[in-house]
């Protein structure tokens, strides 16, 4: 059985293996008191003062699956990522550059989906007592920090939501009920005469622009948004956002 500490170690180990840094970084578990003062992250009296204040520029991604987690990466010199992005830096963001590293870390959690990588304030995540933080060092200086917080399924941003016991009770009676999941990339309305005139090669314009997320419907009800991908020559959908009840209504 894989413990949480081992899973954390494997995740950060996979991360540093894929980070586009000039030298291979080594993760070291951060020990010390973390606190929020007026909404900003500060180090406690027992720390060495090296904890980042620039967590407002953290690259954050959230993994949802059998094991769910919040991940955040901060580099002491984020400008170092611009070289890895290539000359067209306006087309490739820093979050895009470290995306493969975050995906490598997320593989440790098993089956699931890693949400979009965004640059946002991660002070609360770094300060959370349930978050494990690693310093990323080359052996001399600290070049970055990686925060990892496991969370129970059905929770969002560390806030747990009550969930039903699916293994027994009344709801257990419908565990094996099959439901139809549909992925919809767009819709259009056509007159009957236009449908009858369709021939091979005809193009039907949909009500959605290229690159827009697809809708994921369960028994006709909108539950999520996703993007179309190809897996082993088969089409699939990668879930990018789970909708709340009122959003899917």
Structure description:
- It is a single chain.
- The chain is α+β, with helices and mostly antiparallel strands.
- It has two domains: 4-151, Chemotaxis protein chec; 179-248, SpoA-like (Surface presentation of antigens (SPOA), Roll), CATH 2.30.330.
- The protein is 19% helix and 32% strand.
- It has six helices and 13 strands.
- Strands 1, 4, 5, 6, 7, 8 and 9 form a seven-stranded antiparallel beta sheet that branches.
- β8 and β9 form a beta hairpin.
- α1 (4-18) packs across α3 (94-106).
- The longest helix is centred in the N-terminal third of the chain and has 15 residues, at 4-18.
- Residues 45-49 and 154-167 have low confidence and may be disordered.
Core attributes:
249 residues, alpha+beta, Chemotaxis protein chec, Surface presentation of antigens (SPOA), 2 domains, 6 helices, 13 strands, 19% helix, 32% strand, elongated
Write the layout of secondary structure elements.
Blueprint: H1 4-18, E1 26-29, E2 34-37, E3 40-43, E4 58-65, E5 68-75, H2 80-85, H3 94-106, E6 112-114, E7 118-120, H4 123-127, E8 132-137, E9 142-151, E10 181-184, H5 192-196, E11 214-218, E12 221-231, E13 234-242, H6 245-248
Antiparallel strand pairs: 1-8, 2-3, 4-5, 4-6, 4-7, 5-9, 8-9, 10-11, 11-12, 12-13
């Amino acid at each position: 059985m894989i413990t949480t500490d081992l899973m954390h170690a494997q995740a950060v180990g996979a991360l540093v293996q894929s980070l586009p840094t000039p030298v291979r970084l080594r993760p070291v578990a951060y020990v010390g008191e973390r606190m929020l003062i007026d909404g900003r992250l500060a180090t406690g009296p027992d720390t060495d003062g090296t904890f980042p204040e620039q967590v407002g520029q953290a690259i954050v991604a959230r993994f949802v699956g059998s094991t769910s987690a919040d991940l955040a990466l901060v580099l002491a010199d984020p400008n170092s990522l611009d070289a890895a992005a290539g000359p067209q830096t306006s087309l490739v963001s820093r979050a895009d550059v470290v995306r493969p590293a975050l995906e490598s870390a997320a593989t440790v959690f098993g089956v699931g989906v890693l949400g979009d990588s965004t640059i946002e304030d991660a002070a609360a995540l770094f300060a959370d007592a349930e978050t494990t933080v690693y310093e990323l060092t080359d052996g001399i200086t600290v070049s970055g920090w990686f925060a990892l917080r496991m969370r129970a399924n059905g929770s969002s941003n560390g806030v747990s939501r009550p969930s039903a016991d699916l293994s027994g009770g009344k709801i257990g009676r419908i565990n094996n009920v099959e439901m139809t999941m549909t992925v919809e990339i767009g819709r259009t309305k056509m007159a009957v005469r236009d449908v009858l005139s369709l021939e091979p090669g005809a193009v039907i314009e949909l009500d959605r622009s290229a690159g827009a997320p697809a809708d994921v419907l369960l028994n006709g009800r909108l539950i999520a948004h996703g993007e179309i991908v190809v897996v082993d020559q088969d089409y699939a959908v990668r879930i990018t956002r789970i909708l709340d009840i009122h959003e899917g209504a």
